[in-house]
User: Which sequence fits this backbone?
């Protein structure tokens, strides 16, 4: 088992840059911490190296992938105050899918909060959706906080970044907003089909936490404007709204 004792080791210095989107893309690596997430990464076969402070940790991982490091190195790389003494170095190779072969997706435009994005990814997987699409200036899906909020779901469902929604016009849009001519979610129905070739292709579409959906999507993507019937308050957190919608359409 290889050992690294210095925070100034060149490999450790390179890994310390992986908090930045550019570095993740350039190095084609990202870091995962937390026992549950590391186990998911191991099961998904994306772990390149496993940095550990105790040699007996993760006995099922080949010793050729393990590197014994100091607590100071873990602290240098960790974003989590309660790190358990391990960080997985993972291959950045996002799952992709051809949009022509999927029927139900969730689309997120300019989502800022990494916790919201991670939670929605987890919900999309739980309710059997085919992919999560992010648009515009949405937070990077491999942000550490997104990874933690997704609880490993990132390794099991395609999460794709697109520049705009033009490639999604084959999907009928259910646009969640507070515009005029908006139907309540409870009144929406989708015809089920036993034949996937004739199943309606649809997208649940959500906008920025503060500003909502852009006028471009509202005006130029064919579909319906939808809202949830709630009492006493004006709106719900976007992750809560998405979970309700995903459950409705599952």
Assistant:
């Amino acid at each position: 088992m290889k050992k690294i004792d210095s925070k100034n080791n060149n490999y450790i210095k390179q890994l310390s840059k992986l908090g930045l989107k550019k570095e993740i893309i350039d190095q084609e690596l990202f870091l995962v911490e937390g026992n549950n997430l590391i186990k998911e990464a191991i099961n998904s076969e994306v772990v390149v190296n496993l940095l550990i402070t105790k040699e007996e940790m993760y006995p099922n991982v080949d010793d050729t992938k393990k590197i014994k490091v100091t607590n100071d190195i873990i602290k240098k790389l960790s974003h989590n105050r309660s790190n358990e003494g391990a960080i997985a170095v993972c291959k950045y190779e996002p799952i992709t899918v051809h949009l022509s072969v999927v029927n139900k997706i969730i689309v997120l435009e300019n989502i800022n909060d990494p916790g919201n994005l991670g939670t929605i990814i987890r919900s999309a997987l739980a309710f059997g959706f085919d992919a999560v699409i992010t648009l515009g200036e949405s937070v990077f899906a491999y942000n550490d906080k997104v990874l933690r909020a997704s609880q490993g779901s990132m390794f099991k469902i395609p999460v794709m970044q697109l520049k705009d929604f033009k490639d999604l016009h084959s999907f009928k849009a259910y646009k969640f907003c507070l515009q005029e001519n908006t139907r309540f979610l409870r009144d929406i129905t989708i015809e089920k089909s036993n034949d996937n070739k004739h199943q309606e292709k649809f997208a649940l579409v959500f906008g920025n936490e503060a500003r909502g959906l852009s006028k471009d999507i509202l005006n130029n993507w064919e579909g319906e404007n939808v809202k949830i019937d709630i009492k006493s308050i004006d709106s719900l957190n976007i992750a809560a709204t998405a979970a309700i919608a995903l459950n409705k359409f599952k």
About this structure: Residues 114-126 form the longest helix (13 residues).
